[in-house]
Known about the structure:
The chain is an all-alpha fold and 167 residues long. The protein has helices at residues 18-48, 55-76, 80-102, 121-158. Residues 1-10 have low confidence and may be disordered.
Amino acid sequence: MTLSDAPSSNGRRSVDNRPVMLVLRVLIAVALIVSAVIHFQLAAGFQQAAPSGIGGGNLFRIQGAVAVLAALYVLIRGTQRAFLLAAVVALASLVAVIAYRYIQIPAIGPIPSMYEPVWYTTKTITAIAEGLALILALTAYTLHRKSHTASRESELTDGPHRGQRSR
C-alpha cells in the first residue's frame, strides 16, 4: 500500500490521480494542437474567399492561436481554470465547424459567411480533435474538482496536525 492509498482518519482512501491527470493534460494539449495546426494550414485558402474585413483565414488564425495558448495553459498549470478554458475553446471550435457545415449563416459585419456543406478529411479530423479535447477537458475538470474537494474534506476531518500522535 502506498502512502497515497492509505486510509485517512475518516476511513476514506486518498487516491493519487496525478498520473491520470498528467495523461489527460497531454491528451488535451495534443487535441488542441491538432485543431490549431489544421486551422493554420487552412487559413490562407479561407482568407481568399473574403480578402477584405476580418476574413475566414484570420478567424482561423485567431482560433489556432487561442487553441495553442489554451494547450500551453493546460500543460503548464493543469488547474480547473485551465481545463475549463480548454473546454470552452474546444466547444467554440466544434460548434463553429458543425454550424458552418449544416447552417448557411450569412455574413455578420466584417465576418464572412463560411458555409461549407461538405465534410472532408481535415475538417473531420479537426471536429474529432475538438470533440476529444472537449470531453477530456471536462473529464479533467471533474476529476480535479473531486480530488480537491476530497483533499479539503480530509484536511478538515484529520485536523491541521495530521500524522502526529497525541500525548
